[in-house]
Amino acid sequence: MTTPPPNLSKADPAKTDLAKVDLPSDLTAPARPSRAQRLRAARRRAGWLDLARLVGGWALLAGLAYFMWTPGDWPVRLLAWVLLVILADEFGGWFGYIGVVLGGLAFLSPNAPPAQWIIIVPLVGGALMALLLVKHSGGPLVLPFAGVLFAGTLLGVGRFGPKIDPTLTLPANPEFQRTAILALLVGLGFSFVRQIINILLKRRARRRAARLSGLPELSS
Asked: Which segments cross the bilayer (predicted)?
């Protein structure tokens, strides 16, 4: 008699047992967060960022008000005014424009402001207002134009002002020009770095969101 061929339809018990072995939990792929979870996390982050902007902006304005209210020489007040206005504007809202107005707080202080302050406020205040308007018109690429407008205004008045009014000598003072332009460079330098970092973080967030959703990233 011939031996019947093996039944190939039956699976090997050893192989069946191996197939039923579950993989360890640490080797399984983590579940992706749902769209609702991602939206809730984004709203929480946005809420914390808004709170940080409010706290930072009002803190800088409080520091500026302190410099304007307390006695001090005009170079110190000028440096604080220009620098803190530009930095406060980085926190959004109307912080920058409020800082421009706070330059006149020195006239309400019980301590008489320096005699030069009555010339500094309209000149520097107008230049700061023009700087903020240009700064808000675009991203980091408009910052050099805002800086040139501010510095050009002060230097132009310093050069041609005494020819129109011989008593207008403060804008031609090298210390005045040096103090204002130094504060300008520090403030705009901080603004440029912050905006570049913000652009990179947004681009990274878009790429991560595209990977999680499985959609191709849209080029900006």
From this structure: 51-69, 81-108, 114-134, 141-160, 180-201
Averaged pLDDT in 10-residue chunks for the chain of 220 residues: 52 48 50 63 73 93 94 92 96 92 92 88 95 93 96 94 88 94 97 94 80 57
What's the Cα-to-Cα distance from 207 to each of 133, 185, 201, 204, rounded to whole Å? 32, 33, 10, 5
Q: What is the pTM of this model?
A: 0.77
User: Does the residue 22 lie in any domain?
Assistant: no
Q: CATH code at 197?
A: 1.10.1760
For residue 73, give every residue at least 6 positions away whose Cβ sits within 8 Å of its Cβ, in sequence order, or none: 114
The Cβ of residue 185 has, within 10 Å, a number of other Cβ atoms equal to: 14
CA distances for 190 relative to 14, 133, 144, 210, angstroms? 68, 18, 13, 30
1 is a domain residue: no
The range of the structural domain enclosing residue 180 comes to 52-209
